Amino acid sequence: MPALEFFKDKARGVLDPRVFERAREVAERLARGKLKSSQFRNYFAELRALENRFAQERRKEGEELAFARLVPQLELLKAKLFYNTRSQGPLKDAREFVEFMEEALEAGKRSPKDFEAMMKYVEAVLAYFYAVGK
């Protein structure tokens, strides 16, 4: 599978509208599985907290240092996802969600612009997930 790309024109920060079509498709697949909305919401809340911390640090210490601090936190979140797929874990039957999040987190680690776009993408998937009825 090709890497997740968010931009039509990255230099100018123009998102590719197809990323939101993809978000809808992903949400529909996730809704057919055993993922609970509270599980998705919890991980999104962690991402939102990281986003807020990144924004604060970027204002105080600059984008480069703030992003350098963010990337290990994204890796830690990915590790938590995989830990929760163990046989007794809350995500043991939600492998597709873990794969979606892993792909999104990997894409979000490329640059600050990619991280911001990843947040919009994950938020769109969550919105469509709720719209489908989970």
Describe the 3D structure.
This protein is mainly alpha-helical. The protein has five helices and two strands. Helix 2 runs antiparallel to helix 5, helix 3 packs antiparallel against helix 4 and helix 4 packs antiparallel against helix 5. The radius of gyration is 15 Å and the shape is globular. The model has no long low-confidence stretch (mean pLDDT 93).
Structural class: mainly alpha
Radius of gyration: 15 Å
How much strand? under 5%
* N- to C-terminal distance: 27 Å
Low-confidence stretches: none
Sequence of secondary-structure elements: EEHHHHH
Helices, by number, come to: 5
Query: Helix proportion of residues, in percent?
Result: over 70%
- Mean of all residue-level pLDDT scores: 93
DSSP, total strands: 2
Q: How is the main sheet built?
A: 2 strands, antiparallel
**How is the largest sheet built, in terms of strand order?**
1-2
Keywords, please?
two-stranded antiparallel sheet, 134 residues, 72% helix, mainly alpha, 5 helices, globular
